[in-house]
Amino acid sequence: MADETTTVFKYLSRLLLCILIYVVLKTAFSQLFSSEEEAPFQTWLKGNELTHLEKQLRDAGCVSVEEAAQLDVNQRALRRLKQRDKEHLESAIEELQDQLLLKQWLEDYSSLSLLPKLDDLDITAYSELHKVLDLDLDDITQDDEDPLKSIAVYLELNNLQRAVEKQMASDRPYELDFSLARRMWSGITHFVQTFGNVTLATLICAVGFAWVNGNYRTAQASGVSSRSRNAPIIDYITGSLVDPCGCLVDWGWEGSVPVGDTMSFTIKFYQRNGMKYAISDADQLAIEILVGQQRMACSVEYSETDYNLVKCAFTVRRSGLYNISIRLGPTPIKGSPFIREFLAGDVDPHKTGFVQHSSTVVVTQGLLHGLQVEPRDQFGNTCSPERWSKGHDDGDKRWHGFELKVTRVGDQEFDSFSPLYDIAPVRESQCISMIIKLDLAGCYKATATYHGTQLMNGDFNVLVLTETDIAKVSKTIKKKHVDSWYEATLLATNKEKLRKPRKVYCYISSKQFTIKEYYLMVIPKRLFTFRVCPATKFHFEGGEVDQSVPVFSIDDGGQPPIKLASKHRDIMAATFTKFLLMNIGGSETFQDKQKCFYSEVIKHHNRKLSVISLVIDRHNLLESSMKATKSLSTSEWCKKFDIHFVNEEGQDWGGLMREWVNLLCVSLFDPENKLFKRFEDDNNQALVHPNPNRPSYLSKLKYYEFAGKLIGKCLFESSVPTATASQMVVKARFTRSFLAQLIGLRVTHKYFETDDSEFFTTKVRYIRDNEVESMELNFSEEVYDSEGHLEQVVELLPGG
């Protein structure tokens, strides 16, 4: 139907254009080249019997009646004329001037259309103009049968008679005007009178054609919507089509507003003719809201009362510039895309924290050390200085509400030693700097707050070392693979105090913190080993042995904590902290650790230029994938994979690789495939972990090994700066306890809060918060089959 309408409209528009051109040309040529009417100059010569003087007049430069009226008979070109011809020529010129004067006067008073009527009544000259006063309607309209035309002529005659009376009463003489402006105006007047109707019809047709053609092109070429493209021809003529350039957007807010609210705006749609347009789903209205590369969800509501109005609402959580694109089909409306700015909200201390955070900060005695804080609102947006610079007082250390409390470990009073600290903004940044200077070496507890509320990572330790100790730490860091050792005293293990403290030696390297004991000062025995990782924590205590040796504890959550005393405590803790930050990228935040991981992966496993082609059977995906990658080494897993599916055509530009990974993730990690399972089988959103009761055909560990290699491949591809890296994701949500085991952490009951919320709420929390001695609980778990029968009792601890 749409194609037939398009074809009919094209033929009609072309036919209309041809008819219009034909009418214009025919009328113009018939008026300009009519054979029944002679040129005015020739007519004047014949009427005054001057044709025998035509050659002399043309030699004198006279080729028109206007030039004849200005002719001087005494000029040189006409001196040879006979006296009789000269007198006859002068008489004809005077008569012509009188006639032209009448014509000019009628033009000035817009009565030139009466000139033929006046000629019929022998009023041909300006000197005979007084005869007009004696005329009546019958004299003018005696040959007209159309009453409407007679009335128009009567009104025009009445105006002419008043003009004649006014002219006769005036003493100012009326003279001929042959100026260029006058001649141009006469030409325009003649053209309008001659071609007036044709010109008007031409303009109307041209405007109408342009209007219809514009409506058609708007609906067809731009493809506004199927509803407009399939509209009947009458809608193209009347302009009853939606006009994208006529749409109006009414924003529900002004200027830049803070995030946190649901914002809404309305769109009003109009037709090409200015009338309201009834918008509906058939018009393919598309509203897209982008913040950077992130697409925001929005709701679209069609008004039930105002049929041309649409309301759009979206929730603002992220600050920045919002790009709001509104389209009808592929065509954007007027002004689209729109740019609107949303500002960050007020500072939220629970989201505000230190940049490049570390749980232990090492500073030099007597020197300034800066810690940068990035203020953020409740949604994690970085706050501009305007959001936290109200009430600024340069003399107030609690600058804009931020405050830093520093206390020596073991002291109860704040600032008992009066340290020097200050808070100031960072230039060309939205951060503030907390600057601290401590003149006494030792271990301190620092707390950063905003209006009395502690920041997200505002609780940390400060180790103040002398310049000599700092030099020792730096020297140890440079000897990365050589252990440095320090003497210490072992006071307690697993929170049980030893009857007799034991002398031990602490060895620190970039990988581990080892505690050894020597028998007979020669034979070493390893007592404890802690990995240099964020899970290993140093806890500093205020109590001291013999009032001189600092005490501290070490706990990694995976083995019993120990308590040590050593005069080298601060040096050991500072060395451990430096090694830790060096291993994880200089900060304990996830973003910095992720950047460090990516850079280290690229450094040690640089991608080779070669490509490995893998042929995969889609119907036997897991087994064929394991078979295809069975012989690959670790370095070959880092190469680019070129995936081909059996009996399928396709070239892998990244899409087949992503599809292969997505399908494998379903085969491996979907609980329905029995390799992994959920704690809660009836919850599709529950986290997954390895299934201890998997079927026999999945009992081999090679499946888990392959799953680990696949995850490693995705992590490696994510670290490679390519266009496909962001799409290489693992579609699996592992339990937190399983992830903790992967990185070597001890599993505790706290992980059940996220892994199995129902079990944590009904059992773990109840046992933790209530007295349960009378319940005769033990450390065992009962296992039931699918029918609810008890299968076995698993002891969580030996003899539990």
TrEMBL record:
TM segment ranges: none
PROSITE patterns: FILAMIN_REPEAT (PS50194), HECT (PS50237)
Species for this entry: Strongylocentrotus purpuratus
Domain HECT: 639-800
One Pfam family linked to the record: HECT
Keyword tags: Transferase, Ubl conjugation pathway
Enzyme Commission number(s) from the entry: 2.3.2.26
Protein's UniProt name: HECT-type E3 ubiquitin transferase
Claim: Transmembrane helix is one of the keywords in the record: no
Reactions performed catalytically: S-ubiquitinyl-[E2 ubiquitin-conjugating enzyme]-L-cysteine + [acceptor protein]-L-lysine = [E2 ubiquitin-conjugating enzyme]-L-cysteine + N(6)-ubiquitinyl-[acceptor protein]-L-lysine
PANTHER family for the chain: APOPTOSIS-RESISTANT E3 UBIQUITIN PROTEIN LIGASE 1 (PTHR11254:SF340), HECT DOMAIN UBIQUITIN-PROTEIN LIGASE (PTHR11254)
Chain positions of Filamin repeats: 252-342
A molecular-function term among this protein's GO annotations: ubiquitin protein ligase activity
InterPro entries hit by this protein: E3_ubiq-protein_ligase, Filamin/ABP280_repeat-like, HECT_dom, Hect_E3_ubiquitin_ligase, Ig-like_fold, Ig_E-set, PH-like_AREL1
Pathways involved: Protein modification; protein ubiquitination
Top enzyme class: transferase
